[in-house]
Please model this.
Amino acid sequence: DQQVKQNSPSLSVQEGRISILNCDYTNSMFDYFLWYKKYPAEGPTFLISISSIKDKNEDGRFTVFLNKSAKHLSLHIVPSQPGDSAVYFCAARLVSGSRLTFGEGTQLTVNP
Amino acid sequence: DADVTQTPRNRITKTGKRIMLECSQTKGHDRMYWYRQDPGLGLRLIYYSFDVKDINKGEISDGYSVSRQAQAKFSLSLESAIPNQTAFYFCATSDGATLAEKLFFGSGTQLSVL
Model:
C-alpha cells in the first residue's frame, strides 16, 4: 500500500521555465512533508520541507505547496536550471513517529 | 570528508552468501537508518536505530539484520543473499531534534546478487 505517490516518473522542462513536481498521499496522519533531491551515484539530500499547519514554504527558487484537503503537495522550481536535473523524492512523516515514508521519485531533466 | 560513509560502494555476490554493508558517521547523530532503493519503488526503510541499544524493524526487514556497534556505526547484513535483494542501499542519520526529521544520507552501496 503506497501511502505516498509520485505519479510522474519523469518530467522534462526548458531552462528558465517552471518545474512542477507533484506528490499525493493517503494518510491524513502525516504531519510533515519533505522533498529530497538525488544525483546519480550520490545519496539523497534534503531540499525543503513543510509542516501540515502551513500551505506554503519558500526557499529561494524552491517553493512547496500543501493542499491538505486534496492530500496533495507540489514542488515548484523557478527558474529551472540544468543543475536541477536529478531525481526528486517526496517524503512524509507520521504524527506518531519519526519514520519517513518516501514516494517513488520523479526524474527531472532541465534542458539548456 | 563525507559525514556519512558507506562501504563498500559496489558489491557483487552470489546467491546464498552472507554479506555485510557498513555505515559510519561523524555527525554525532543518535538516529541511524538503512534504506533500500529500487527503480519505481522509491526508498523503503529496512531497519532503524534511535540509540545504541535500540533496534527497530522497518517496512521490509525480512532477510536482513543489523547491528549498532556504537553511536557512529550501524551495519546491515544479508544472512543469505538472494537475487531480489539486488538494489541500491543507503544509510542515513538524523538528530531527531527537529520536527522536520531531516535525514543525511551516505553515497550508497550498489549491491548485485547473482
Q: What stands out?
A: The radius of gyration of chain B is 13 Å.
